Amino acid sequence: MTAREIVAALTARGQTLAVAESLTGGLLSDAIVQVPGASKVFMGGIVAYDEGRKVSLLGVKQATLDQYTAVSRPTALEMARGARERLKTDWALSTTGYAGPDGDDVGLVYVALAGPRGEKALECRFAGSRAEIRNQAVQAALHLLTLD
User: Fold this and answer.
1) Which regions of the chain does DSSP assign to beta strands (E)?
2) pTM for the structure as a whole
């Protein structure tokens, strides 16, 4: 779904959305708030780039970070769950990953969704520049939210 479609669908349902971002650093929030009327459904976002902030702001367990790292499916799920709980929304999306330019896992991204029908996470492998990887992560997160 596009940000415009998400805002329209959530508005029609009277539901709300929050985001938890790491590698996207606010880009996901920005994609949503660019849509007119987003203020009716978008309650806010938490950018938790640092591991300690993932713990303190989003409730990610230190044990999860120790066992799986900040860039993992379990961390992405805990980030989404934490945003949903803390911002008291129906739905929450999260992003975490390696945008580069250095490192062995550049392009490895996890996006997650927490909502009334449960939780899901997706592992993605993106190529391109740092900006391209971050933008692809935003699109992947938006596409993860499907409102049947």
Assistant:
1) 17-21, 42-47, 91-97, 108-115, 118-125
2) 0.97
Tokens of 14: 């009277």
Among residues 33, 131, 144, 37, the alpha carbon closest in space to that of 95 is found at 144
What are 49-62's pLDDT values in tens digits? 999 999 999 999 99
- Where do the domains of the chain lie, and which CATH numbers do they carry? 3-144 (3.90.950.20)
Classify each residue of 62-78 as buried b or exposed e, where b means 16 or more C-beta atoms within 10 Å of its C-beta. eebbeeeebbbbbbbbb
For residue 34, count other CB atoms closer than 10 A to its CB: 11
Which helix (H) or strand (E) segment holds residue 57: the answer is: helix 51-58
Return the percentage of the chain with pLDDT > 90, whole number. Answer: 94
pLDDT tens string 71-105: 999 999 999 999 999 999 999 999 999 999 888 89
